[in-house]
Amino acid sequence: MLDKATLEQRLVTVEKAVSDLQHKFENKPTSENWLEKLIGSISDEAAFQEALEYGRAFRQADKQE
């Protein structure tokens, strides 16, 4: 079981993170088009780039057969 001081510190950390997220989304311009919200949302993620490379390799391998 966590001691009280550790638990309180973790709670402070979570509250700060929630507050930061709320401010981030409050200041973000809203778009009515769901596609505009989605476009580019994960394009800078390494896993997304890796998936694109696998897709390209798969399509190229399929063309060579």
TrEMBL record:
It comes from the Bacteria. This is Transferase hexapeptide repeat containing protein. It comes from Crinalium epipsammum PCC 9333.
